[in-house]
Amino acid sequence: MVQGVSQGYVKVLELVGVGYRAQMQGKDLILNVGYSHPVEIKAEENITFSVEKNTVVKVEGISKEQVGALASNIRSVRPPEPYKGKGIRYQGEYVRRKEGKTGK
């Protein structure tokens, strides 16, 4: 059996950061990730979004390529930064952290 038809493909993204939130507006996804404006992401055909606890976004669909591309577009809105680790990351993704400058 074909996985896309029987189970579908899922990518899970986490929003890490104070005040970073995701919410649904109809079928579209609204992200508040520290910009002066909310970022709206339209749902493509055969792709659905779901939001859990305002910080976990699931992208589901029957095409692995479409799901991965849309999840990558969402992540590119605010990729994780290496100093505090804030941003949008895939679930289970390891973000390599850097040390900041040392004070005098």
From TrEMBL:
Transmembrane feature ranges: none
Q: Which UniProt keywords apply?
A: Ribonucleoprotein, Ribosomal protein, RNA-binding, rRNA-binding
Can you provide one Gene Ontology molecular function annotated for this UniProt record? structural constituent of ribosome
What name goes with this protein?
Answer: 50S ribosomal protein L6
Q: Which organism is it from?
A: Staphylococcus aureus
Q: What PANTHER family does its record include?
A: 60S/50S RIBOSOMAL PROTEIN L6/L9, LARGE RIBOSOMAL SUBUNIT PROTEIN UL6M
Family, similarity comment: Belongs to the universal ribosomal protein uL6 family.
* Domain Large ribosomal subunit protein uL6 alpha-beta: residue ranges: 16-90
Q: What does this protein do?
A: This protein binds to the 23S rRNA, and is important in its secondary structure. It is located near the subunit interface in the base of the L7/L12 stalk, and near the tRNA binding site of the peptidyltransferase center.
Can the keyword Transmembrane be found in this entry's annotation? no
Q: Does the keyword rRNA-binding apply?
A: yes
> A single Pfam family, by name?
Ribosomal_L6
Question: Entry's InterPro entries?
Answer: Ribosomal_uL6-like, Ribosomal_uL6-like_a/b-dom_sf, Ribosomal_uL6_a/b-dom, Ribosomal_uL6_bac-type, Ribosomal_uL6_CS
Which cellular component, as a GO term, is one annotated location?
cytosolic large ribosomal subunit
Q: Name one GO biological process term.
A: cytoplasmic translation
Q: Which domain of life is it from?
A: Bacteria
Query: SUPFAM superfamilies attached here?
Result: Ribosomal protein L6 (SSF56053)
